[in-house]
Each structure stands twice: as C-alpha cells, then as structure tokens.
Amino acid sequence: MAIDWSGALGPRQKGIAVALCGREGAPELLRPKGHAHWSRGEVLHLLRDGLPPDTLVGLDLGISLPFADAGAFFPGWAESPADARALWALIDKVCAEDEHLSAASFVDHPELSAYFRRHGGREGAQFHLPQALHRRGRMRVTEEAQARAGCKPYSNFNLVGAAQVGKSSLTGMRLLHRLGGAVSVWPIDPLPESGSVVTEIYTTLAAVAAGRSAGRAKMTDYAALNAALAVLGSPPVAGEGAIDDHSADALLTAAWLRTAAPRADLWKPAEMTAELARTEGWTFGAL
Fold first, then answer.
1. Which domain holds residue 96?
2. What is the pLDDT of residues 50-87, one digit of tens each?
3. What is the crossing angle of helices 166-179 and 84-94, to 10°?
4. How many domains does the chain have?
5. What is the Cβ-side half-sphere exposure of residue 61, based on CA atoms within 13 angstroms?
6. Closest Cα partner for 143 from 120, 179, 169?
7. Rounded CA separation 106/102 (Å)
C-alpha cells in the first residue's frame, strides 16, 4: 500500500491518495466510503483496522525531524524529545485542540516556532543552525541519501513553498502517534517477522526506479503512468487521459513497493545505526 499524504487544512484532503497492490495484478486506488476524498482520520482507521494481513504500507512523508546534525531535534531547548516516538507524542499533545490531525499549534508554539521557516517571511532564529549544510535547512541523514539518488529533498523544518513537506510530515507524525503499537513503524520499531509494517517513502524514488528522472517524477496522464508501471513489471491500470498526480504517485509507488520489499539491502542501509533509527528514522529505498 502506498499513501500520498497531505498537510493541508480542512476535514478532507484532495492531496491524499491510497493505492493497494497485491502480489499480482495492477495496483488499485482505494476510496473512502461515501466521499470523494480521504480524511486523515479515515486513513488512521484504515491503518489500525482495515489492512490486509502482512501489508507493507508506505507513507509519503517524513516520519521524524533532523537529530543527528545537532544531537537533538530542538538543540538548546530543555524539553527537546529524546527520540521519534517522544517527538510524535509531543506534537500530538501540543496540537490536541487542532482539528483533523493538523499541526498549526506546533509550528506557532512560542518556543518551537524558532526552529521553523513559516509563511510571511517568518524564519526562526534556529532554522539555520551552524550545522545546517543547505539553504533548504537542516537535513536528516536519510535525506542526504535521497539527494545522492538525484532527488531534491527539503528540510522538514521548512513550511514554505510548493516543495515543502514539513506540514505533511508533522500531521503524519500525529497519525503515527495515534497509531500506537497497532502496526510497527520501521525503522523506529524493529522489522517484525510477520504482520503489517508502516514505513516512510519518497514517491520520487519509485519514479526513478520506474525509469523516470527525478525532475520528471510527476505523472498526469494514464499513458505515462502505465509506461512507468510496465518498467516495474506491473500490468497497466484501467483509464485514459488525465490523472491527478497524487493518484499516479500512489499507484506507481504501490507497484514499486511490491518489487522493492524483497530486497534485503533496502532494509539495511549502511548509514542507518540503531541511534539513527530510533531518532531520525529512514526512508525505505534510500541508500
């Protein structure tokens, strides 16, 4: 299963798309009952109670914030969490009054806002730490691996611009906290011998594996999508003409996960230490 996620405000998100791929056949889009678009709460319910057995679920968001570069998520703040699960709990606590698993209260927090780049030219004093290697802000180790693959990741502390993933990542961390222990989250949790697993994905990695360049990762018609699916050995999906890029991303990435899941090297990135796994996490497929 691949889930293209969204950090937008509101009860239902046009940017959320969910695709499921069996051991054989073409991937299929899943729709929420009675609605055209998913809510984040419905996705949480799906993950907790609606997964087929032993499903690998890829969430297109950052499951944590940078830690290794400065030895903390929020260096200089006495209450900075010690690991990813504590970070998720903090975000959910601060945002307890925010509807629809949004995270506005977290980025507007009087102390935490100093670490984020927000709209209106509001760049916090801690957004660019001395350790930051890029104008795009602090990066996790896995995001450096994404860059080596030709992608252009942005810091999860950046909340501005079309390429930002900070908002979706923070809302996703609320979902992961609410998920509790119902499903393992790799690599925050060890890979279980059986049962379903949630992991972070970057849909551009799937597009590159399907023969597209990182700059042409987005597909907006069925012909391009089915050509990419063919490279992955997947049957085509039914349809012609235009398709929204969220649905295309989810469909292609679900098919890619089917081919990538058996690869032992993708589960054991050379740079991923036990400390890194429990703090920053990792993007499945980044080496």
1. 1-287
2. 999 999 999 999 999 999 999 999 999 999 999 999 99
3. 100
4. 1
5. 27
6. 169
7. 9
